[in-house]
What we know:
single chain; mainly beta; elongated
Amino acid sequence: MVFINSNVNAHQVSLSVRPTERDTLTLRYARVSANELKSPIQFGQGTRIELANGVPNPVAGVTKKHLTDDVYLEYNRVVNANTYLTAGFSVSFPGAGLDGMIGKKAPTWTGGFINVVVIF
């Protein structure tokens, strides 16, 4: 997720399936929106300088509520009693609030990870 718990609403739904006792696949979708327009988002994010008649002015927050739509797919595998594998992939589709901050269509963000935990 792009933002953490400040001036945002995140509504999430998820679906998990367990094809075997050792495997779990979870799909999550989140819609993230600004709580309050023209107000800082998480530790000042969204603050930028805009020119008004040649004079720089600091502007905070966003002017449209929709920030992102996030899709996250996670796979968990119990390899054995002491070893666990987790892999995930996410895609974040910026909304009108983020597009407005940069004055153009923001790029789609992707990310992924693989994590192995061994307990000994």
